[in-house]
């Protein structure tokens, strides 16, 4: 004789009922047996709980329980076919819901995230999108995330991760040098509008970070991964320094300090001057510094060394010249 599940204690029974109602809402029709298997309880416990739900509710405006103030089920289906179908919900439907536009925006974000290689459980993402659509106060607009070159590269990375194979690609580094790399893809991350692949580079025999929009001609090889995400300790910081990095002194608005935290080495002094903070960042070369300054207009200025100031100023002047702008006349940062 099979062991019967132990009866639930009062506190566990409440927790079970609070879990059972959303489960039944997500399943328009479910058999008692399937529900019992899902929760690991006996079929009789499911039947008793459904009967209890059917006499639960909240008092209406008359302070007395009226039919619409109680949960209800399709009793014929329940008694004759052992099927559970909720026909009336109480209070739960009165909770705040996402608008159709809010749900559409969230669904679009989930569509994009489902394309990332680390999000392998796409069935869970699809289920969540369906729940958002059902739970919105209005039908969400039909949305689709437009594919781009980055999306195409992400798809190849996803295929490499799913197959457990190494990835080969041409890489244009920040010095405008092309190299063919072979990498064990480990993780995809984003900073602002840019996406990065973190992986074990077989050319450098070390962990490396690659900007995805600089990756060209990606190919999934037949070679199995030699390093896996669970076997490699990935630093929290996206960018790792090297002994050849250059120190650059900057003044940055205090509100923007978290945006460049990855560039500030441990132990670097931070001196506040009004709304500005003066500190030091480390960059691999001044070419990358130009892009960093450009991405934080009006909140970050290079204060030293003089070579760094000159290179950034010349680059900014060259970019502004076709528009007739005088960069030298740009007012300094506030504070």
Automatic annotation (TrEMBL):
Protein's recorded name: WYL domain-containing protein
Coiled coil (residue ranges): none
Domain PafC HTH residues, every copy: 12-133
Pfam families linked to this entry: HTH_PafC, WYL
Domain of life: Bacteria
PANTHER family: PROTEIN PAFC, PTHR34580
Residue ranges annotated for the WYL domain, each copy included: 153-217
InterPro entries, per database record: CBASS_pafABC_assoc_protein, PafC-like, PafC_HTH, WYL_dom
């Amino acid at each position: 004789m099979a062991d019967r599940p132990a009866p639930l204690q009062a506190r566990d029974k409440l927790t079970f009922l609070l879990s059972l109602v959303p489960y039944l809402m997500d399943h328009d029709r479910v058999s008692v047996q399937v529900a019992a298997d899902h929760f690991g309880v006996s079929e009789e416990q499911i039947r008793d709980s459904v009967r209890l739900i059917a006499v639960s509710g909240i008092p209406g405006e008359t302070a007395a329980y009226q039919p619409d103030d109680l949960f209800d089920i399709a009793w014929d289906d329940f008694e004759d076919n052992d099927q559970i179908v909720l026909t009336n919900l109480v209070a739960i439907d009165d909770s705040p819901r996402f608008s159709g536009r809010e749900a559409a925006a969230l669904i679009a974000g989930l569509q994009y995230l489902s394309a990332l290689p680390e999000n392998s459980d796409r069935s869970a993402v699809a289920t969540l999108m369906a729940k958002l659509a059902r739970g919105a106060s209005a039908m969400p607009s039909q949305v689709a995330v437009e594919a781009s070159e980055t999306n195409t590269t992400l798809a190849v990375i996803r295929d490499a991760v799913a197959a457990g194979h190494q990835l080969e690609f041409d890489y244009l580094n920040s010095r405008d040098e092309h190299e063919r790399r072979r990498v064990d893809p480990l993780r995809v991350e984003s900073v602002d509008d840019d996406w990065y692949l973190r992986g074990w580079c077989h050319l450098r025999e070390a962990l490396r970070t690659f900007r995805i929009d600089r990756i060209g001609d990606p190919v999934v090889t037949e070679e199995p991964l030699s390093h896996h995400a669970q076997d490699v300790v990935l630093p929290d910081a996206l960018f790792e320094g090297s002994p050849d990095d250059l120190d650059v002194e900057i003044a940055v608005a205090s509100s923007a300090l978290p945006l460049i935290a990855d560039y500030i080495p441990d132990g670097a002094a931070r001196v506040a001057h009004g709304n500005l903070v003066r500190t030091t960042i480390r960059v691999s070369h001044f070419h990358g510094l130009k892009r960093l300054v450009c991405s934080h207009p009006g909140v970050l200025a290079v204060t030293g060394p003089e070579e760094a100031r000159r290179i950034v100023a010349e680059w900014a002047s060259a970019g502004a010249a076709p528009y007739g702008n005088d960069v030298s006349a740009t007012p300094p940062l506030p504070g």
